[in-house]
Structure formats: C-alpha cells, structure tokens
Write a structure and sequence with these properties.
This protein has 287 residues and is an all-alpha fold. The protein has one domain: Orthogonal Bundle (MetI-like fold). The protein contains nine helices and no strands. It is elongated. The N terminus is likely disordered.
Length: 287
C-alpha cells in the first residue's frame, strides 16, 4: 500500500493587500500616498520637462498668468511655471535626500543602542538626547551661515540635526520589542544576531520608522524653504521656491503671482506630504 502524499501544511506567507491598505488610509491619505511618487517623478524629470528654458527671457516682463504662460512671467520675462517646476527639483529631492541620510544614520545608531543595551545603550542614548534638546533649526542656520550659502551646506546642516529623531524611534522600538514573549522565546531557542534582528525585531521597527519619515517630509521641506527664503540656499538666479518668494515680496501688491505661486507650491508639497503621512499612519496602525 502506497502512502498518500501529505498535504503541505505550512501556512502561505501573507501577501500585501494594497486595496485594504488604501481603504485604511482613507481617500485623502490615498491621494497623498499616490501623489508622493508622482511628485518625485516630476522632480527628477524637471530639467527636461519644463516648457521653456527657466533661465532665459521668453516673453515680456510681468505678464500675468495666461494660457501661454500658466504662472505668468517674472521681472525679466522668464516663464514662472518653468522656474517653479525646476524649483520643485531643488526643494523636493534635497528634502528626500536629507530624510534618507538621517533615516539610515539614525536607524543604525538606534538599533545598536537598543540591541547592545547596558553601557553602550546608556552612552548612545545620552548622545541622542543631547542632539534632540538642541535647537536644531537655529543651529542649522548658524552652520549654513558659517559654511556659506548653498544647497549642499543646507542639506548637511539639516541632516546633522535630523537623524536623532529616527535613532530615538528605532532605539525605543527595539527596547520595547526585545522583551516581548515571542522574542524571548526565540532567544531561548537559540536565535541570535542577524536572524533575530531581521526576523523578529525589524518587522516591528520598520512601521514606526516609516510613519516618522512620512510625517517628517513636510517639516524638512518647510525648513529648507525657510533657509532658502532667508538667502541661505542657492544663489540667484537659481529657482529655489523659498528664494523666489523672498526675492519678489515687494511685488506682492502689484504682480501678485511672483511671490504667491511659488509659495503656493511649497504649501501644496507640504500638504501632500502631510496627507501621505496621515494616510500611512492610519493604514499601518489599522493593520
């Protein structure tokens, strides 16, 4: 008598359910989540998709918004819509770069602190606390002022004071998870090192970090725009959104589109990032 083949009793690995994720995120959150990659693609392609050369005169100066020039023209006849698209390139991508670097460094420090414990955790935790209590934005302004205006200097100054927040999240989540019963059972069973981290700890840390990152994009954009507004970004005639608003404030009552429309794009980018952050938080916490 031949034995019947035994059915595979191993549970299938659950597949990520995108429709359910967007349902939990809500329609506003879904708009933000979908909009993030769309804006990123636009920012990456900005130098090649502008309808006019952002640095050249293409029409008369101070033309109001029209079908030919959607955002009008500036004081020397450059197309403001083209300059605004390029401004997204100089604002959105650097903000993502700051977030990415801060996330990588902060997560590494937080994971080391949480996993090592004892004296290592004590020392790293005090370092994290020291950076968190410092007035980061003010010191970042001082760093850029001392290094000199420029986009790279702005990014360096912000990254220096942004990583501790992710380190705090990663460290606290590791310390919370490491005493959970399933992690204790795994350690008793001989699971240690990278296997313990990858299989039992990181799945609980990543959602918290993802929520923090999604809610931080707007803060980084606003801080970078503020520094650009104060003249600490790229020098003229680079089309940074904050600088474009600052340079044309005196035209607010006469040529309103010059300061208002770049500022409106900053507002829309921050709104989109906040909607995405709220949606991701709702979706992950409802999972």
């Amino acid at each position: 008598m031949t034995d019947r083949p035994r059915p595979n009793t191993m549970p299938a690995r659950p597949r990520f359910n995108w429709p359910d994720f967007f349902r939990r995120a809500g329609w506003l959150g879904s708009v933000g989540i979908v909009g993030i990659p769309v804006v990123t693609v636009v920012a990456v392609l900005a130098p090649w998709i502008t309808p006019f050369d952002p640095q050249l005169r293409v029409a008369e100066a101070y033309l109001p918004p029209s079908a030919g020039h959607w955002f009008g023209t500036d004081e020397i006849g450059r197309d403001l819509f083209s300059r605004t698209i390029l401004g997204v390139y100089y604002t959105w991508l650097p903000a993502l770069a700051v977030i990415g670097f801060s996330l990588a460094l902060g997560s590494l420090v937080g994971l080391i602190s949480g996993l090592m414990g004892d004296k290592v955790d004590l020392v790293l935790d005090r370092i994290i606390d020291l950076f968190i209590v410092l007035p980061g934005t003010i010191i970042a302004l001082a760093v850029v002022a001392s290094l000199g205006p420029g986009l790279v200097n702005t990014m360096i100054a912000l990254a220096i004071f942004w990583w501790p927040w992710y380190a705090r999240i990663a460290r606290d989540e590791i310390r919370r998870l490491i005493v959970r019963p399933h992690v204790e059972a795994a350690r008793i069973a001989g699971v240690h090192g990278s296997r313990l981290l990858l299989r039992y700890l990181l799945p609980g840390v990543v959602p918290a970090l993802l929520i923090g990152v999604s809610l931080d994009v707007a803060n980084v954009i606003m801080t970078m725009s503020l520094m650009s507004f104060l003249g600490l970004g790229l020098p003229a005639p680079a089309p940074e959104l904050g600088a474009m608003t600052s340079r044309t404030l005196e035209s607010l009552t006469v040529h309103w589109w010059l300061p208002i429309l770049p500022a409106a794009i900053i507002f829309l980018l921050c709104l989109l990032a906040n909607l995405a952050g709220d949606g991701i938080r709702a979706a992950l916490r409802g999972a």
